[in-house]
From TrEMBL:
It catalyses: 4-aminobutanoate + 2-oxoglutarate = succinate semialdehyde + L-glutamate; (S)-3-amino-2-methylpropanoate + 2-oxoglutarate = 2-methyl-3-oxopropanoate + L-glutamate. This is (S)-3-amino-2-methylpropionate transaminase. Belongs to the class-III pyridoxal-phosphate-dependent aminotransferase family. PROSITE patterns: AA_TRANSFER_CLASS_3 (PS00600). PANTHER family: AMINOTRANSFERASE CLASS III, LEUCINE_METHIONINE RACEMASE. The keyword Signal does not apply. It holds the Pfam family Aminotran_3. Keywords: Aminotransferase, Pyridoxal phosphate, Transferase. InterPro entries: 4NH2But_aminotransferase_bac, Aminotrans_3, Aminotrans_3_PPA_site, Class-III_PLP-dep_AT, PyrdxlP-dep_Trfase, PyrdxlP-dep_Trfase_major, PyrdxlP-dep_Trfase_small. The gene is gabT. Pathway: Amino-acid degradation; 4-aminobutanoate degradation. Its cofactor is pyridoxal 5'-phosphate.
Length: 429
């Protein structure tokens, strides 16, 4: 097998520079909560491929389902010759997503594609143009979703012009805005009413816990107030649960923590154990406002990805991975809090379930909005963790958040080893 160094050389001559990788090691195998690189080194996985392999890498049921499906047929295109697996995934989505109302789903390939389609559907259903998004939001890298995404570097820099009719309002960010949920919502709603106009709003689009933007958990009451406002305004409330979905936060979907029932939900990532699949699920009358043929794509709901999704969902049910996520929090949060007590640079520990983070700041220094971020220390800790064999991601508008996204099937021993490596990384800096 070629070494990582050799592969890196070949990569430099063949792979576009714009596509970068976090670590310089190349994967050989990955299973459960670990990964082994081609140089024979074992890693503890606190990334899950960015919240994708919630059921673990190469989860046994997923492997079996994919093998069986690939032997039966690989692709017919659901728009040409439909198949049961697509229908079954949509049935599961109707059952699992919050809200006891009639639902429909449409399947796509990537998170960004799901978000694009949710916006298309909301505009079609309402006949209105405007889409409201939030500070720190991340919704993808396509043209429309770049416009929906807040952070310019690396996602948007030089890639404009961007799509129009996107309006950004303040997010509830307890560490930085000092507002309670109701206050923060009133502030955001005031902005929407004054600068967009309620009757122009097709959709309010929000991540119930922001992912790339820094694992920002809005103050209690923020999400329900926005959902209620959307309803009163005749706008579609869309929860982007692409990163938070499928048991990650200790519930099937993060909207449920506050009893929010979004009109539409976008999902991807954790849905199919690593195969590319995404969905828009929501109220039948909104989804079915679109004429036949108005939604689709060659690969959307590919049968192999659907088979993987059905096996992933079955695994999540059987192993009760929502409970596993809560267990991960019960183990990891006290360790992170102890770490914060030791390192004043940790300004906050936050998150839910197996979506946990620490925000790294410069102690005693204030910026215009709360404690001064320390992206340099953050990067150094992440790099130290990588050198110790821990796959660890950062995030945040200011690049100063360390996030934990372990696969939900991670063993207690692996979790303990991973947390110890994180502690070691902090102490080494
Ligand atoms: N919405 C909430 O988290 C993807 C992006 C990583 P795609 N997040 C990881 C990167 O740097 O590209 C994401 C998300 C939320 C939408 C998306 C987009 O999902 O499957 O990457 O298109």
């Amino acid at each position: 097998m070629a070494s990582s160094a050799e592969l890196h050389q070949r990569r430099s001559a063949a792979v576009a520079r714009g596509v970068s990788s976090m670590i310089p090691s190349y994967v050989s195998t990955a299973g459960g909560g670990t990964m082994t690189d081609v140089d024979g080194r074992e890693w503890i996985d606190f990334a899950a491929g960015i919240a994708v392999t919630n059921v673990g890498n190469a989860a046994p049921k997923v492997v079996e389902a994919v093998k069986a499906q690939v032997e039966r047929f690989t692709h017919t295109c659901f728009m040409i010759a439909p198949y049961e697996q697509y229908v079954a995934v949509c049935e599961q989505l109707a059952e699992l997503t919050p809200g006891d109302f009639e639902k429909r789903s449409a399947l796509f390939n990537s998170g960004a594609e799901a978000v694009e389609n949710a916006v298309k559907i909301a505009r079609h259903a309402t006949g209105r143009p405007a889409v409201v998004v939030f500070d720190h939001a991340y919704h993808g890298r396509t043209n429309l979703t770049m416009a929906l995404t807040a952070k310019v570097m690396p996602y948007k820099q030089g890639f404009g012009p961007f799509a129009g009719e996107i309006y950004r309002v303040p997010m509830s960010y307890p560490l930085r805005d000092g507002r309670g949920g109701a206050d923060a919502a009133a502030y955001a709603i005031g902005q929407i009413e004054k600068t967009v106009g309620a009757s122009n709003v097709a959709a309010v689009l929000i991540e119930p816990i922001q992912g790339e933007g820094g694992f920002v958990v809005p103050a209690e009451g923020f999400l329900p107030a926005l959902a209620a406002w959307s309803k009163a305004a005749g706008a579609v409330f869309i929860a982007d649960e692409i990163q938070t979905g499928f048991c990650r936060t200790g519930e099937w979907f993060a909207s449920s923590h506050e009893g929010v029932e979004p009109d539409l939900i976008t999902t991807a990532k954790g849905i199919a154990g690593g195969l590319p699949l995404a969905a828009v699920t929501g109220r039948a009358e909104i989804m079915d406002s679109v004429h036949p043929g108005g939604l689709g794509g060659t690969y959307g709901g590919n049968p192999i990805a659907c088979a993987a999704a059905l096996a992933s969902i079955e695994t999540m049910r059987e192993l009760d991975l929502a409970a596993a996520a809560r267990h991960i929090e019960s183990v990891a949060r006290p360790r992170l809090e102890a770490l914060a007590a030791k390192h004043p640079a940790i300004g906050e520990v936050r998150g839910r379930g197996a979506m946990l983070a620490v925000e790294v700041v410069i102690p005693g220094e204030d910026s215009a909005a709360g404690p001064a971020p320390d992206p340099v220390l953050t990067g150094a800790v992440a790099k130290a963790a990588h050198e110790l064999g821990l796959l660890l991601l950062t995030c945040g508008t200011y690049g100063n958040v360390i996030r934990l996204l372990p696969p939900l099937i991670i063993s207690d021993d692996e979790l303990d080893r991973g947390l110890s490596l994180l502690e070691q990384a902090f102490s080494s800096i």
